[in-house]
Amino acid sequence: MSAQEIIALAPHDLLWAYGALLLAAALAWQHRIGQSRDLLWGSLRMVLQLLAVGYALRWIFAARHPLPTVLMLLVMGGFSLQIMAGRLRHKLPGFYRIVSLSLFAGCGGVTLYFCLLVVAPSPWYEPRYLIPLAGMIIGNSINGACLAVERLAAEMKERQAEIEAALCLGASPRMACQEPLRNAFRAALLPMVNTMAAMGVVSLPGMMTGQILSGTDPLIAVKYQIAIMCAIVGSVALTSALLLLQGYRTYFTDAHQLRS
Predict the structure, then answer these.
(1) Same domain flag for 53 and 88
(2) Which member of 30, 91, 165, 235 lies 3.0 to 4.6 Å from 110 by CB, making a disulfide possible if both were Cys?
(3) Where are its TM segments located (predicted)?
(4) Domain tally for the chain?
């Protein structure tokens, strides 16, 4: 199938697709689980957001200038920060500074590495490559980072006596927190490990499916999927590690005592 043979969806096709979501809302309402309104509101928000980003991307692709591309990446980063702030129940002291630095270094560094050395589009800011790839990397990284922060907070609370005992015996804060840091890092990576294990056997990933539907050769789609998964795993690991290495210090005072 060539790109010219792509089946374009008409508005009435989307209405048919929306029927599946209405079915989910109806089931939620029937069983009184209190999610029907959230589903409808979330779907409306999804449609408006996707339409807005669709028109924005069409304008950015036509402009082919680095400034709109960079601005789009900054907007994505800003929304990622707000999404993390909304999801986390336990926020670290200095949350916005720590998370901003981690996202910028982790997601930004891996995105540039991937785009400049692996895909290498010309020009380097080619928005058709840079923006979708950054979106996938950032989206997966904030999920991993949220898991890491939540797990670290839970471990620090559960292991308070153990950590204080280690400090009394002369351990540094970093040494006393080794096990919570390991468990938090493991929690961040676990979804990616499970995703890679099921990929191609249980599920076809969204990027690969989208490329195949658009007429791309399946083997080319597979190569892109392998490459982007490597980048995503690297970004999740780097972002989470930076977040944990900065975050654990906020649980201690300047005198290396555990904050109450």
Answers:
(1) no
(2) 235
(3) 6-27, 39-61, 67-86, 98-123, 129-149, 184-204, 224-245
(4) 2
Residue where a domain stops, chosen among 33, 63, 93: 63
User: Looking at the domain assignment, is residue 1 inside a domain?
Assistant: no
What is the Cα–Cα distance from 105 to 233, expressed in whole angstroms? 15
Tokens of residue 49, six digits: 């957001």
Domain that holds residue 81: 65-251
| pLDDT of the residue at 184 | 94
The answer to whether position 27 is within a domain reads yes
Triad 123, 113, 119: Cα angle to 5°: 50
How far does Cα 95 stand from its chain's mean position? 17
Residue 139 lies in a domain: yes
What does the pLDDT look like over 147-181, one tens digit per residue? 999 999 999 999 999 999 999 999 999 999 999 99
pLDDT tens figures, 97-140? 999 999 999 999 999 999 989 999 888 889 999 999 999 999 99
Helix 95-103 crosses helix 127-158 at what angle (to 10 degrees)? 140
pLDDT of residue 1: 46
For residues 45 and 149, membership in a common domain is answered with no
Same domain, 57 and 70: no
pLDDT digit string, tens, across residues 199-229: 887 777 878 888 888 888 889 989 999 999 9
Domain termination site, one of 47, 63, 79: 63
**Helical segments of the chain, H only:** 11-30, 36-63, 66-87, 95-103, 109-113, 127-158, 160-168, 173-176, 178-198, 206-213, 218-247
Q: Which residues pair with 199 in a beta bridge?
A: 203
Rounded Cα–Cα distance for residues 31 and 180 (Å)? 39
